[in-house]
Amino acid sequence: MIDLHGFGHQLLQGALVTVELALASLVVGLVLGLLGAAAKLSSIKPLQWIANIYTTLIRGLPELLTVLIIYFGATTVLMSIASLFGYDEYIEIGAFAAGVTALGLTFGAYATEVFRGALQSIPKGQHESAVALGMGTFHKFYRIILPQVWRIALPGLGNLFLVLLKDTALVSVVGLEDIMRKANIAVSSTKEAFLFYLVAAIMYLALTVVSMGVVSYLEKRARRGLTRG
Amino acid sequence: MDFSVVVEYFPRLLEGTWVSLQLVVLSIVLGGIIALPIALARISPVLWIRSFPFAYIFFFRGTPLLVQIFLVYYGASQFEVVRESFLWPILREPFWCAIIAFTLNTSAYTAEIFRGAIQAIPPGEVEACKVVGMSKAQMYRRVLLPRAFGIVLPAYGNEIILMLKGSALASTITILDLTGMARTIIARTYTPIEIFLAAGAIYLVISMVIIAIFRQVEKRQNRYLGSVSIKVPDKG
């Protein structure tokens, strides 16, 4: 068995942080994605503009830069807002909060496109029959549209989640104690860089495989109402 | 916010941009060259030929680029053999380590894109080649690869943009690319928002140029399809 010099436990703790970060960003990103898609498909022009600017900007920026902008920028912005209210102490947002914000924004921008495609592919008849049954807007969305959007969007969202999982490594740059940072710490004390980064790589691979399994289970489950063909 | 720092440091940011562009262009070209044999091996009917590219692609697409860069830059120097070999002058330089990591990474993604394109060619065209008596090499050279090139373009354009964004990671191994330069300037001026936004704007401009170039190439490559190629099929 390979000797991890007692850092194995630390790496597992890092893996937990990585998973937490990925799941928290996923929730934020899914909400942003649905809102973004709704805005893009709405008939109100300014909403469309905002959604377009959002997706164009975020998708054009390197994820590392987004993380850095949120981490360092949010501090400056929050402090200038706080000083308006007469609070002049130093405020700092944590690496985890910055990571969730940055990765959630990124996931949301790509998810917007996925959801938009899925929403547009729901046949008009589905909307009409829901209305004919006397459902209100909320009921129609929750019981008829959303389950179908979910089924159609899942493969795309699954791919985005795999990208998100790998992007979590970037948050180690601003000091989050995830797999990557734990590996860095282990390397700086043992000088066995190849070993620890390889272990980190294998941990990410394992997380990827597990996520792929979960996504394919969810896909099967979402398809259960669908007859073959 | 004070954007005069952006004006003052703009030449430095452009220097960083130049490094970023070098990283992207070199890795994309080298990655593309490696990707082709990998893609061809990946669709081989022989299991053991197919399994190596599968593992390669699985590893490079399943792990973060950051891990791959660190593996090359910090990892390689763990071994005495490497430090004494003729490769050391290359593996000592962060720039070449970044190139190696980016090339391997992008070649895995590109191989998958190539594979998809080759498999997307209608079987009728393969049959037609066989009927006119082409050898396998001729078939690939004259029909399959040029066809695949046309199909591959949109996805390949995306991959280049992803590589551009990934190149920001070079800054983590002390390279002064656009992001690295921005971080250096910020360490001196402490104006993170202004400088990072300026760097972000430069990235956006480069992506837009790449998108525009690819639109032109796509139009040219698929010109034999007439106006059909521009039309996206209606959804059912």
TrEMBL record, chain A:
Coiled coil: none annotated. Keywords: Amino-acid transport, Cell inner membrane, Cell membrane, Membrane, Transmembrane, Transmembrane helix, Transport. Belongs to the binding-protein-dependent transport system permease family. HisMQ subfamily. Residues 15-215 form the ABC transmembrane type-1 domain. This is ABC transporter permease. SUPFAM superfamilies: MetI-like. InterPro entries: AA_ABC_transptr_permease_3TM, ABC_transp_permease_HisMQ, MetI-like, MetI-like_sf. It is found in: Cell inner membrane; Cell membrane. The chain crosses the membrane at residues 21-43, 64-87, 93-111, 149-174, 194-218. It comes from Marinomonas arenicola. It is a multi-pass membrane protein. Pfam families: BPD_transp_1.
